[in-house]
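Something for you to look into today, if you have time. Could you write out one complete protein record for me, on any chain you like? The space below this message is yours for that.
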Amino acid sequence: MKFKSSEAGGQGRGYRWRSTLVLVCVMLGALGLAARAVELQLIDHGFLARQGDERSMRVVKIAAHRGAITDRSGEPLAISTPVDSVWVNPQEINDNIDQLPKLAAALGEDPQQLARRVTSNLDREFLFLVRHLPPEQAARVKALGIPGVNLLREYRRYYPAGEVAAHVVGFTTVDDRGQEGLELGFDQPLNGEDGAKRVIQDLYGRYVENVESIRAPRPGHDLVTSIDLRIQYLAYRELKSAMQDYRARAGSVIVVDVDTGEVLAMVNQPSYNPNDREQLKPGLYRNRAVTDIFEPGSSIKPFIMAAGLASGQYRPDSVVDTSPGLLRVANKVFEDEHDLGVVDLATILAKSSNVGTAKVALSLKPEQIWNTLSALGLGQVTGSGYPGESAGMLSNYTHWRPIGIATLSHGYGLSVTPLQLAHAYATIGAGGIRRPITFERVTGPVPGERVLDPKVAHALVQLMEQVIAKGGTATRAALVGYRVSGKTGTAFKSIEGGYSTDKIMAVFAGLVPASHPKLATVVVIDEPSRDLREGGTLAQGGTVAAPVFANVMSGTLRLLDVPPDDLQNVPAATLVQVNESP
């Protein structure tokens, strides 16, 4: 019995020891939990609260509305419309990979390609799938309710005028940043500043509550341009028609307000639709009127006459002997189509005499010519601030030789942009006052710099009227009821080893009305084909570019209500008697 009692006592002591051990463990666990609770609630509370907020609270961007671009009358050229973009959290959507085929169908994407994009970006928490969805497509995506798939409100740029104003307005990137044209040149004021707000999200990334506004978005400023959309459409239509008629390589038309320096229209061909990003190729969206340089040919001859008049060696009625219709300078012979004999300056321009112009240029000091060309803005940017504008090329007169002066006198050996050429003619039309070119609408008088004597400028405008008169090279630039001044240019294009014999730049630059110029317009047609209407002869500025000028100006003068200044030469059958009631 003693043996049994001893055994039972040992079992009791073992039970008590185990009970005590368990109790101690429980007490230690309870103390540990209490200590951990104290640590979490008191010591680490701030840290954990921040971590919790980071997982449920987010700071999201509030996209700023980009400013609109309008023409001078308020017609929209570029506007921003709210759209939705689809983004995903790859880590989250990977847990719902079986939902990707539905998402791909809603987005119109290939399911396998979409799955590859998601699974190859599992280290990221944000991935755009599609930007700027149409509203109905965004609604279909939202209706799916797939965890990890979210919509982000953004703005997409639309261009109501399409390719008509594409080159002057430009376009933005998918992130609404200016990429070309005025969109780039005025990107900062147009863009505004994005805002920010703090929100609470649920498990699926959906916004549960707007907590606070951190920074209100600042919308961009609107840009009112100098462009008149009516004239822009007119110039676009006429240029495109000429391009088709002559199967030309490219072309440009620029219309400038002489009194303000405002660009009322600027079009190029070929053009593009800025609403279709698949068309955005450098060869199409380059603004040739501002960036491309070319040798202006005979359209520069009035500037040589201006230098002659400014020198005091010539008057408007001065004469030059062009016999026998050719002129040898060094080893180069310059010829006229006919021997014109002794002619005045107006005839030299009207017949575009190479000999007469070269003789005038060679009689002047090189510095006098350079001063006039430089004063008219050649070799300099126009001051427009347009992105990518070229300054052209005008070498310093100290490098000129007689052969170079003779060549330069009829438009070779220097380069200009169409915008520069229009600027120079606008300066002449303004009585010798050079105003900076602008693409913004201006009000009131615009100050400028006097670069030519007003008598010289006015005399030059009168001399250039003979170019459009009967017997001149630009009779097709004539307008019913208006006097026109201008000059044609037909420049053979430079090629490897010299100049082409059939590739030309056809140019016409003109001023209307000649009695008091209001508009300066330049038309440039690059590589027109031979004129089949003229028996297959080589196309020229007077046959290709001058008619475009006439068609654009006839409509523009009516749109702007510019009164006629040549009614005495209007056929009686075209006159309309207007009776005004008292």
Remarks:
- The chain is about 35% helix and 20% strand.
